[in-house]
Amino acid sequence: MRIFEPVQIARTELRNRIVLPPMVTNWARKDEFPSDKNVRFYKRVAKGGVGAIITEAMNVVPSVRIAARQMGIYNGKFVDGLKRITAAVKPYQARIFSQLVHGGPRSAVGDCVSPSGVPIKETKPRILERDEIFDIIHRFVEAAKIAERSGFDGVELHAAHFYLLSAFLSPFTNRREDEFGGSAHKNSRIVREIIRRIKNEVGPDFPVTCRINAFESVDRGIGLQFAAHLSRDLEAGGADAIHASAYVIHIPSSTRGGPAVPMGGPPTNRDPQGCFVKYAENVKGAVSVPVIAVGKIYDPIFAEEVLKERKADLVALGRQLLADPDWATKVRQGRACEINWCVYCSACSARLREGNDVVCVRNSDLGK
Questions:
Q1: pLDDT of 68
Q2: pLDDT tens-place string over residues 138-178
Q3: Are strands 12-14 and 18-20 parallel, antiparallel or unpaired?
Q4: Domain CATH for 253
Q5: Where are the extended beta strands (E) located within the chain?
Q6: Is the dihedral of CA 253, 254, 256, 258 positive or negative?
Q7: 3-state SS assignment for residue 12
Q8: Where is pLDDT greater, at 256 or 269?
């Protein structure tokens, strides 16, 4: 099966093409160190046979978080705690990437900032000054250096879902007219600059992937052509893989001119399987680096078809791996009939919206 063929991201080889994508858990300790639950979860998924793990987003700026409890990676003090995660994963031959994020206009805690002040939630964000942008670039680079010291195989820049880097990429939220906005190339400059500096300081072979919105269902949002331009620019800027997500936001007529209310998020049981794959396929046609498809992928036959038809190079399973971390092993051993299927009830995401720990109604052992 193609899904079990090795694949390379930069010079780092993954044993197969199955990826655990980043998912908020709210399991981190209050001091932003990883908890025992974080360590156990990533160890359990690695043991289950995936090729790569991308951790939940870690904040690169003190006191700016996207969740009530989130791991930090902005200070060297976190190295020993993060090493607990990488050391737990390594014996199982899975590669592990740290996802780096600045909450920007969607910050749950801390400074709410954005390229142009376009609101994504009830709080109107403050517009970043030029010198602040360069400081944020520096903070992402420092976080990548901490990730490398902590034993991670690479980093992913969270440039999707209207967090800060995503807000720069999207024409919906980026109305700037300086070197950081006004075209696909200028919008991507902040991300390209982060990649360039990481490569210069950590090393050219240290993998840096980018998770982007490959489509946004909103006026002035990222469409297919814009996503293709962005992806080519990111590849030219040094990105080693593109993780093609998507986001849908709805602006109620009663709030036109006011806050944009996020209505996007993970697919539900009403959405078709692979509902974002077409956006990954569009990106795949624009770049030569590996493309990761995500979005309600759970059936191994479907996942295999995505890879065989060259719509993507890797598949990310998300909530299916919350329900059954042994998915990969069961498929490889011909035991797919034993998979504990995710029913896409959204209980996990509902818990997170309430500020609680993630749970799975199909897997009572999650985090244990």
A1: 86
A2: 999 999 999 999 999 999 999 999 999 999 999 999 999 99
A3: unpaired
A4: 3.20.20.70
A5: 7-9, 12-14, 18-20, 52-54, 58-59, 95-101, 113-114, 126-127, 154-159, 208-216, 241-247, 249-250, 261-262, 291-293, 314-316
A6: negative
A7: strand
A8: 269
Share of the chain above pLDDT 90, in %: 81
Give a yes or no: residue 17 inside a domain.
yes
Pull the structure tokens for residue 242: 């593109």
Task: Give the domain extent around 57.
Answer: 2-353
The position carrying tokens 């996990």 is 348
In a domain, 282, yes or no: yes
- Give CA–CA dist 194/366, Å, rounded: 34
Q: Report residue 331 as tokens.
A: 């498929």
- Closest by CA position to 111, among listed 129, 93, 99: 129
Confidence of residue 248 (pLDDT cuts 50, 70, 90): low
> How many residues in the chain?
368
Answer yes or no: is pLDDT of 268 > 80: no
- Distance separating alpha carbons of residues 119 and 124, to the nearest angstrom: 5
**Whole-angstrom distance, CA of residue 69 vs CA of residue 27:** 6
Are the C-beta atoms of 296 and 272 separated by less than 8 Å? Answer: yes
Let me know if residue 364 belongs to a domain.
Answer: no
Encoded amino acid at 26, one letter: N
In a domain, 315, yes or no: yes
Largest distance between two CA atoms of the chain? 56
In the annotation, is 163 catalytic? yes
- Name 361's Cβ contacts closer than 8 Å, sequence gap at least 6: 343, 345, 347
DSSP state of 106: G
Closest CA to 271 of 200, 344, 188, 329: 344
How many independent structural domains does the chain possess?
Answer: 1
Task: Give the pLDDT mean for 116-135.
Answer: 94
The rounded distance, in Å, linking the Cα atoms of 57 and 26 is 11
Selecting among 163, 247, 279, 344, the annotated active-site residue is 163
